């Protein structure tokens, strides 16, 4: 099968890790903790990439499966304090994805010495210690995690990192038998928004107009329009 064909393929290994962590059903959320300022938005990007691609009601056979993989996270060096307490001691409903770099925190000049923030300790040391210390804390109580390291955060290596996740999404979709490349739920939301805009236009011209729209939508829109009508 696939595993014998791609034993060392990083994207395949990542997809298999997701499958193992969530039992092939997305039963655990993926929490992204990136230990570099320039990776601060990585969690948000992966949230869009993974959840839009893998959140599907039907599989390739048309059967109802309600598949998905929930993703959230932020910059590990500061925002881990908002997450780690529950991730370690709360419900066992997630796994961590640690993303770090071997790059020094000085400049683009690799020959420049890294500045110490206290004797014998650099800012890079702090980031690495924070990441590995948190990983140890998770392992001590049996919580799952995986770690991805990149050489540096420049255009090339960032592109490699994003390509890794994009390919892992496609491979994971093949593992669970869904189409990762269409988004019917997104289209449904756009269609609903278009209908609501038409309703707003109708009620703006006649606030008491009769409509077949859901009563809760009508009530909310009328409350939205009332102060604007008074201001006008």
In short:
With 232 residues, the chain is α/β, with parallel strands linked by helices. Helices cover 51% and strands 16% of the residues. The protein is globular and about 70 Å long.
Question: What is the strand and helix layout of this fold?
Answer:
Layout (H helix, E strand, L loop, with lengths): L1 H4 L4 H12 L7 E6 L7 H13 L1 E3 L5 E4 L3 E5 H4 L4 H6 L4 E8 L14 E3 L2 E2 H18 L4 E6 L4 H22 L7 H22 L9 H17 L1
Parallel strand pairs: 1-4, 1-5, 5-8
Antiparallel strand pairs: 2-3, 6-7
Helix pairs in contact: 2-7, 3-7, 8-9
- Overall residue-averaged pLDDT value: 88
DSSP summary, beta strand count: 8
Q: Helicity, in percent?
A: 40-55%
**Spatial arrangement of strands, main beta sheet:** 4-1-5-8
Coarse morphology:
globular
How does the major sheet shape up?
A: 4 strands, parallel
How large, in whole angstroms, is the Cα Rg? 23 Å
Considering the chains and any ligands shown, give keywords for the structure.
four-stranded parallel beta sheet; 8 strands; 51% helix; 232 residues
What does this structure look like?
The chain is of the alpha/beta class. Helix content is 51%, strand content 16%. It is built from 9 helices and 8 strands. Strands 4-1-5-8 form a 4-stranded parallel sheet, sandwiched between helices. The protein has a two-stranded antiparallel sheet with strand order 2-3. A hairpin with a 5-residue loop joins β2 (56-58) and β3. The longest helix is centred in the C-terminal third of the chain and has 22 residues, at 155-176. The chain is globular and about 70 Å long. The model has no long low-confidence stretch (mean pLDDT 88).
């Amino acid at each position: 099968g696939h595993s014998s064909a791609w034993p060392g393929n990083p994207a395949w290994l990542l997809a298999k890790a997701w499958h193992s962590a969530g039992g092939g059903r997305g039963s655990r959320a993926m929490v992204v903790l990136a230990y570099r300022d320039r990776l601060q938005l990585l969690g948000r990007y992966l949230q869009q990439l993974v959840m839009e691609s893998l959140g599907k009601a039907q599989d390739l056979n048309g059967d109802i499966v309600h598949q998905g993989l929930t993703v959230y996270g932020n910059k590990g060096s500061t925002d881990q304090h908002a997450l780690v307490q529950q991730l370690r001691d709360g419900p066992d409903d997630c796994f961590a994805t640690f993303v770090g770099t071997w790059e020094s925190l000085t400049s683009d000049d690799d020959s420049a010495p890294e500045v110490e923030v206290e004797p014998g300790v650099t800012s890079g040391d702090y980031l690495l210690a924070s990441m590995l210390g948190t990983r140890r804390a998770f392992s001590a109580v049996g919580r799952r995690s995986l770690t991805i390291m990149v050489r540096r955060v420049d255009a090339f290596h960032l592109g490699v990192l994003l390509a890794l996740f994009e390919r892992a999404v496609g491979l994971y979709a093949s593992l669970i038998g869904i189409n990762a490349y269409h988004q019917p739920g997104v289209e449904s939301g756009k269609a609903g928004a278009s209908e609501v805009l038409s309703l707003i236009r109708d009620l703006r011209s006649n606030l008491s107009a009769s409509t077949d729209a859901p009563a809760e939508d009508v009530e909310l829109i009328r409350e939205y329009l009332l102060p604007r009508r008074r201001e006008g």
